[in-house]
Amino acid sequence: MEPILTKYVKQPGGASLDFYMKVGGYEGLRKSLGMTPDQVVDVVKQSGLRGRGGAGFPTGMKWQFVDKKSPKPKYICCNADESEPGTFKDHVLMERNPHLLFEGCLIACHAIGAKVAYIYIRGEFYHVQQVLERELAKARAAGLVGKNIMGTGFDCDIFVHRGAGAYEAGEETALIESLEGKKAQPRLKPPFPAVAGLYDCPTAVNNVETLCNVPFIITEGAEAFAKLGPEKNGGPKLYCISGHVKNPGVYETSMHTTLRELIYDPKFGGGIRGGHQLKCAIPGGSSVPVLLPEQLDIPASFDGVASAGSMLGSAGLIVMDETTCMVWAAQNLLYFYKHESCGKCTPCREGGDWLHKLLVKIERGDGEMRDLDLLLSVANNIAGKTLCAFGDAAATPVLTTIKTFRAEYEAHIREGRCTLPASWRASHPVLAAH
Amino acid sequence: MSFHPLMEYGAGHHQSARVLPEEGPAFAFTAANLAKLEEICTRYPAERRKSAIIAALYLAQGQQGYITLSAMRAVAAAIRCSTAEVEDIVYFYTMFYTRPMGKHIVMVCRTLSCALAGAERVTETLSQELGLTPGETDANREFSLLEVECLGACDRAPVVGVNDDWHECQKPEAAKALIDGLRASGAASLTGCHLKVAGE
Q: Is residue B153 part of a domain?
């Protein structure tokens, strides 16, 4: 498939306003401003666009739920807090195609009747924020953002809001809390942001890639978008491939592409690094179940990956070869979840730490067989028992690796060390004890 | 009165584990920073100044290098909220420092994709080279070494952040080169983000 969102990412000057205008930029906005907000929502609904942040919720429906009759102002919050381990697609879009994001934000604002969009960018993306601010100033000067856009009387502003290092801010209600100047902790839902979001006003929170798809839908039509992919999984999709592949990177293709193609096709991942074989892959960022090599002949679509018992999530495909110790991998991820837990719900705040301690114990060689049942018990008492999906995400690496690689855990416990001969960790006692 | 008959005062039960922020030297925002903050506040509804609290803390940290109690008070005054609310934010978000940091804050990403590419060994070699364990700052405040979570550039693993800049594909054996480069020419020695296209 010919790239749509990332067509010009390698072009020198491709991120500038001049270049964007030369290749038909802001035409989607112009066209949408000639439509009523309801018409815009309808087109997006017909296209079947699903949120690219992780949950895959239909974007048109999300916009439709926004309470337009409310006398309060409405807001668009763009979730640019990309921090799911293994995900780096929004980074590319924002740095190399910022005006596409602005155009998507403006169309979304028109659709829900908002006058302001906030782009919540993670604190670590300082250099990306510089690009956004620079290009935003140019768009404002050109009359594309601000008052009376394109002379149509439509007023809409976009502001970049920088976070300060919190994975939890990627959850939509936590993002809203953070934007209000509080700790990034999730809210109890309902009410959903569509009713009471930012400043208690109706709000839609959309991922960067989701909003970047909107201009294409408006200019080319819902049908053109939908037919790019399988049914209910239309449009272009960005995949982030990392780990033990020859060519890690961001690749844009249709959701007809299979996971195996993404890993092995020379156009994409290019296969496993020299002399090694695939052990398993995590298809959607660290929070989703692992898939084995024989499970990869499925379309890398929301529904395709779900049919194999995992999730497309944020499309962060992490590939691991046979040298990877799964106890170590789970321990690495649980350190992440323990560190990033916002602390609001007890199961996640306390349980994450317990899981990590148990995994460290096994990794260190002091594990006992009963620890496996304890791990499962603790993990099952986190999943589904927290305000946001973080709890499930933290439990998943443990549940999925024990389910799929139980023998490896048992060998680890029996031998008191990592049994993988090829693992470089096994030959580094200092690290194995870390 | 004691909280519980079996929990006597002075037996350790009532001691808070809360770490109090350092008072630090007297802090006041520079006029330029105050003006910048006022400009940022205009992005939010007038009654929602608190939205600018993170921005205000970045300005304070940029001015002094780290956040003290004195700086928290200045931020609270500028945002018109309580100092406790500011303290809450400072301790929640990882990018605010409450103690003096080195000139170069070296942050090694330790999450899975980078770890698969050997990030642990990068930390180990940097640690040996600098004589610091992660979390420490050297005596003359030249370097701080930190381990951080996923930086969002997993295709260029292992990634090392230095202050607001990036260094990609850091090989464990090149730790000395990274440190020497920073000593000699600062951020100019880093690879930066590979997405930058020449001529922009």
A: yes
Read off the tokens for A25: 């930029």
Task: Determine the length of chain A.
Answer: 434
* Contact across the interface for A14 and B45, Cβ inside 8 Å: no
Looking at the domain assignment, is residue B181 inside a domain?
Answer: yes
- Whether B85 and B174 map to the same domain: the answer is no
Tell me whether residues A333 and B57 touch, CB distance under 8 A: no
0.80 cut: is pTM over it?
yes
| Distance, C-alpha B178 to centroid of its chain | 20
- A93 near A5, Cβ under 8 Å? yes
* Angle subtended at Cα B93 by Cα B88 and Cα B94, rounded to the nearest 5 degrees: 135
Residues B29 and B74 in one domain: yes
pLDDT above 90: percentage of residues in chain A:
91
- How far, in Å, CA of B91 to CA of A3, rounded? 42
Q: Which of B30, B64, B99 is the last residue of a domain?
A: B99
Q: Which two tokens stand for residue A403?
A: 């389910």
3-state secondary structure of B95: coil
Phi-psi region for residue A286, left (φ > 0), alpha (ψ -120 to 50) or beta? Answer: alpha
Domains of chain A, with CATH numbers? 17-226 (3.40.50.11540), 236-321 (3.10.20.600), 326-432 (1.20.1440.230)
**Distance from the A159 Cα atom to the nearest Cα atom in chain B, whole angstroms:** 7
CB contact under 8 A, B154 and A85: yes
Mean pLDDT of chain A: 94
Quick: pLDDT tens for A374-411.
Answer: 999 999 999 999 999 999 999 999 999 999 999 999 99
Cα–Cα nearest to A372, from A413, A430, A422, A313: A413
State pLDDT tens for residues A39-63.
999 999 999 999 999 889 999 999 9
Structural domain of B185: 104-189
Could you tell me the CATH number of the domain that includes residue B136? 3.40.30.10
In this structure, what CATH number is given to the domain that contains residue B27? 1.10.10.1590
Q: How many domains does chain B have?
A: 2
Chain A interface, best mutation among B106, B116, B125, B169, by max A CB count within 10 A = B116
Residue A306 and residue A132 in contact, taking contact as beta carbons nearer than 8 Å: no
Q: What is the pLDDT of residues B129-151, one digit of tens each?
A: 999 999 999 999 999 999 999 99
Phi-psi sector, A156: left (phi>0), alpha (psi -120 to 50), beta:
beta
Same domain, B87 and B131: no
- When CB atoms are compared, the residue of B50, B54, B79 closest to A164 is B54
Strand partners, B146: B107
- Are B92 and B3 contained in the same domain? yes
**Whether residues B85 and B134 fall in one domain:** no
Contact between B48 and A339 using a beta-carbon 8 Å cutoff: no
Residue A396: partners with Cβ closer than 8 Å, 6 or more residues away:
A287, A288, A289, A383
Q: Find the DSSP H helices in A183-301.
A: 208-220, 222-226, 259-264
Q: Which residue has the tokens 């690495």?
A: A332
| Residue B198 forms part of a structural domain | no
Distance from the Cα of A208 to chain B's closest Cα (Å) equals: 14
Q: What ipTM was reported for this prediction?
A: 0.93
Same domain flag for B92 and B180: no
Contact criterion met (CB < 8 Å) for A87 and B154: yes
Residue B194 covered by a domain? no
Which of B39, B64, B99 finishes a domain?
B99
